[in-house]
């Protein structure tokens, strides 16, 4: 229970952080790419310098987590050992290597009035990031925000707060070594929920909130926030095997899409198969799936094809398993596949396997999802695989950013207009 | 007072409209540019066919408005006479002439993994537009949404509902004549506030809300909405006369920026002048402003320059007058001008007058506003002047759309990926 006076304490503390972040954002706004990259390089150094403190802090979080009875999966997410810390430090190189997301002219044209207009990418301002256990989010988020000249306020999950504090100390050291304001990356230093509630009201200081975590967390934040939210919701992804698909490609790509990692949002959950491809394309794939321990839930045609297939229910078409389970449905046409995906899918990532160029074009133009793939595994739904250096999430919303969110999406556009004294006629 | 059962009636009616809009958006999603433009051309014809009904409806709205004691300014906004209706019908030509905002490839690249990625513009989906008196918004909004393949739900102000109904009948006739779903453009057929409340909860059907109206309306909607909102808030615009400004240009551009129309959001409200330019650049400008009936409120230096200048207070730097009043402040440097604008401004539109290329670049890179102009009147802050054919507002937010919002901003991006069977390594 939070008392009123505690709530107002949190409001005061978080507001002071937001004001400091906005001031820092003003300074970052005019930094050069070289300055921002120097801070990222310094962060890499400081992560290695601070390694003992970071590993100790993580050990404390892990012990507390084990005592609290966190699941093995959660503990594995929380773990930051020497190997992972080194990988995390090295991952900054990919962000440094990215081109400057700031200053890029995205459009340029001249009007009959004589005004010349350039649309130029500029920093967004202040970004609030609310996440759960993974310690790497602290570094990824700070680095992507810095790369694009933004200040950020980080709110780590209660399980990983010690680790986040130790990582944040390295960030602060890096900022100071490069003469950038420490307030450019701030951590909310409490696990109390009231601090998040206070943060979400500060729309005069914070430009966008990015939550990373389960659906419950994200929906609660979206409902409560006065600040625009970039959401990362379900990944109910489909692969559709067209009648004109290559059989080996259908088998390999679908197997990878389902089984490479079953717990990520880009994993295929439902396989759609053209009626004409069931007998030709599925037997080898099903063998491979069963051999790998995948459960298959299918419609009548699938059950007839293979006795190991469990009957699928309506609920299966709605389910993101995040597990080695695959729902399989036959469809009579390409249009039926598109209609199924637009109806049951989460508009995240969907693929077609076909050798028919027209079918691929119809599929990609008709499926209303952030990522639509042709002859490619849905597991490529990832900022790193898209070449963004890293990602802060995969947006399932349609506004501002859709699909993997990298530094280039943490920007806004500014119109720079010039003329030789143009005045507007009445 | 709305009773609970009335509220649930509105919820049921508005929900049914939103469901129908989402279905219509699915159909619009795959229409061609030729089909969408044909509907816009049909709308032009139908507006002229329906002219008698539209003019009669507007007469009824005008009479009701006059009886309710609406101000002359509001009645002028509400008025749709034959001349304005013809201009409105003709304004569709500019939207038709725009290039297709859909299908444009904004980025294209290949990754080392072999996947080839195209970012392609696609329709947003369903757009809710909530506005006040101006009848032209009904047509502008419907036309811009259609141009970009979106369905829309329109909520007109109570003063203009009769006119909106008559205009909507013309829209429906145009859609039907081109075999597009009538539900692609729907009108909320009540002036009851409860209908808006119901609309703002329907985030599973509606992708974005665009309010047009006073600050009160927009803030209420933003606070209440579960759906992302593209906001059009204050236009506290500045013109800065640098020490290196041409004297005649400073005079002409500033006069136009302030006085062409004082009631629009792009009108300059505060003039900043470099200390070194006060005696050289202001006398002619002040004469011109006073002659045109403009009130000038200035700091000490201004009052010393001209006895007609009224002392400015701190409040003046915060005020969007929308009237023939100009606040004038001297600043000691370019940096002081930028700092003033970033502190007091509304991040809408700001201009520098200078012949110094470096000063212009520093100003444009340092001022955090949607539009920054060099030697150009702030009154160019307008979708038509930007070449967007028309605008649905000028976004003062930083997310998704900033500055004038045309059809091209009522889109989202979709990543279309292809490869020759790429699977992601473990």
How would you summarize this macromolecular structure in one to three sentences?
Chain A is α/β, with parallel strands linked by helices and 426 residues long.
Give an account of the 3D structure.
The structure is a homodimer. The first copy, chain A, is an alpha/beta fold and about 425 residues long. Chain A is about 45% helix and about 20% strand. Chain A is built from 15 helices and 16 strands. In chain A, the strands form four sheets. Chain A has a seven-stranded parallel beta sheet, with helices on both faces. In chain A, helix 1 (about 5-30) packs across helix 8, helix 3 runs antiparallel to helix 7 (about 160-175) and helix 10 packs parallel to helix 11. The first copy, chain A, starts with a helix and ends with a strand. In chain A, about 55% of the residues are buried. Chains A and B meet through helix 10, helix 15, strand 13 and strand 16 of A and helix 10, helix 15, strand 13 and strand 16 of B.
Key traits:
Aldehyde Dehydrogenase, Chain A, domain 1, 426 residues, homodimer, 2 domains, 15 helices, globular, alpha/beta, Aldehyde Dehydrogenase, Chain A, domain 2
Overall 3D shape of chain A: globular
| CA(first)-CA(last) distance of chain A | 61 Å
- The overall pLDDT of chain A, averaged over residues, is 95
Secondary structural class of chain A: alpha/beta
- The helicity of chain A comes to 40-55%
CATH superfamily of the largest domain in chain A: Aldehyde Dehydrogenase, Chain A, domain 1
Q: What is the count of structural domains of chain A?
A: 2
């Amino acid at each position: 229970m939070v008392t009123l006076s505690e709530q107002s304490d949190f409001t005061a503390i978080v507001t002071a952080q937001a004001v400091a972040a906005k001031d820092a954002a003003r300074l970052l706004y005019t930094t050069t790419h070289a300055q921002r990259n120097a801070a990222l390089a310094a962060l890499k150094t400081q992560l290695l310098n601070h390694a003992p403190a970071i590993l100790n802090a993580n050990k404390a979080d892990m012990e507390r987590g084990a005592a609290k009875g966190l699941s093995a999966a959660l503990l594995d997410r929380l773990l930051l050992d020497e190997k992972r810390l080194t990988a995390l430090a090295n991952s900054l190189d990919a962000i440094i290597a990215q081109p400057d997301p700031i200053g890029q002219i995205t459009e340029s044209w001249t009007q009959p009035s004589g005004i010349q207009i350039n649309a130029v990418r500029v920093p967004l301002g202040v970004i609030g990031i609310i996440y759960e256990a993974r310690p790497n989010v602290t570094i990824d988020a700070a680095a992507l925000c810095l790369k694009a000249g933004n200040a950020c306020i980080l709110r780590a999950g209660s399980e990983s707060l010690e680790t986040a504090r130790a990582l944040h100390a390295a960030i602060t050291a890096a900022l100071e070594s490069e003469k950038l304001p420490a307030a450019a990356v701030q951590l909310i230093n409490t696990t109390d929920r009231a601090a998040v509630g206070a943060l979400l009201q500060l729309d005069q200081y914070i430009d966008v909130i990015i939550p990373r975590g389960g659906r419950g967390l994200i929906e609660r934040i979206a409902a409560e926030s006065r600040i625009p939210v970039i959401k990362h919701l379900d990944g109910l992804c489909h692969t559709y095997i067209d009648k004109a698909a290559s059989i080996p490609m259908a088998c390999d790509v679908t197997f990878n899409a389902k089984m490479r990692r079953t717990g990520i949002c880009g994993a295929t959950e439902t396989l759609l198969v053209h009626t004409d491809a069931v007998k030709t394309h599925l037997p080898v794939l099903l063998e491979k799936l069963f051999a790998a321990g995948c459960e298959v839930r299918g419609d009548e045609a699938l059950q007839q094809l293979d006795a190991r297939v469990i009957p699928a229910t309506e609920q299966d078409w709605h389910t993101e398993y995040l597990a080695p389970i695959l729902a399989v449905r036959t469809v009579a046409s390409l249009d039926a596949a598109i209609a199924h995906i637009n109806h049951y899918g989460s508009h995240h990532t969907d693929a077609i396997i076909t050798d028919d160029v027209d079918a691929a074009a119809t599929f990609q133009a008709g499926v209303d999802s952030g990522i639509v793939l042709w002859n490619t595994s849905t597991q490529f739904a990832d900022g790193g695989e898209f070449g963004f250096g890293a990602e802060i999430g995969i947006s399932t919303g349609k506004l501002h950013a859709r699909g993997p969110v990298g530094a280039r999406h943490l920007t806004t556009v500014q119109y720079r207009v010039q003329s030789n004294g143009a005045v507007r006629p009445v």
